[in-house]
Amino acid sequence: MREKKTEWTEQKIVDIKEQIMEALEKVIDPELGIDIVNLGLVYEVDLFDGGFCEIKITLTTIGCPLADVITDDILNAVKPISDIKETQVKLVWYPAWDPSRMSRYARIALGIR
After folding, report:
1. 110 with 34: CB under 8 angstroms?
2. Beta strands in 1-113 (DSSP E)
3. Taking every annotated instance into account, which residue ranges of this chain make up the domain MIP18 family-like (predicted)?
4. Taking the chain, what is the end-to-end CA distance rounded to the nearest angstrom?
5. Are residues 99 and 84 in contact, defined by beta-carbon separation less than 8 angstroms?
6. How far is residue 91's CA from residue 33's CA, in Å, rounded to a whole number?
7. Which candidate, 48, 72, 100, 104, has a CA 20 to 30 Å from the CA of 34?
8. What is the pLDDT of residues 10-64, one digit of tens each?
């Protein structure tokens, strides 16, 4: 396993993670038409030495046929961030996703109370 990022200050790490989350807000779930951040699909973003980024996500359903599309969109969204040299997307299933993870915006957009 790679070593956690030590060469950046805590504030720099926060800034980079904010840039990553902003980029991920442009990744739209093709079936629902809402970004993966507001859907609550992004579980964790970790930074490591050498500019390596690991993004842990889940999907709304196991066996989602669009997993590869979403993964490619994530990689493309993060690519312009200059501090990130390599990105890996890890698909996780625990904790299981449920609608309570969605933002208020996503619930309203999908008509969920």
Report:
1. yes
2. 42-48, 52-57, 86-91
3. 17-90
4. 41
5. no
6. 20
7. 48
8. 899 999 999 999 999 999 999 899 999 999 999 999 999 889 999 999 998 888 8
Going by the DSSP 8-state scheme, the letter that residue 34 receives in this structure is: S
User: How many angstroms separate the Cα of 67 from the Cα of each of 27, 30, 64, 73, 111?
Assistant: 12, 10, 6, 10, 24
Candidates 47, 51, 36; CA nearest to 101 is 36
The backbone torsions φ and ψ at residue 43, rounded to the nearest 5 degrees and listed phi first, read -95, -35
Whole-prediction pTM value? 0.90
Q: For tokens 């709304």, what's the residue?
A: 60
Angle at the Cα of 74 from the Cα atoms of 37 and 61, rounded to 5 degrees: 60
- CATH (residue range 10-110): 3.30.300.130
Q: Are 28 and 20 in contact (CB under 8 A)?
A: no
Quickly tell me which residue has 């969109």 as its tokens.
73
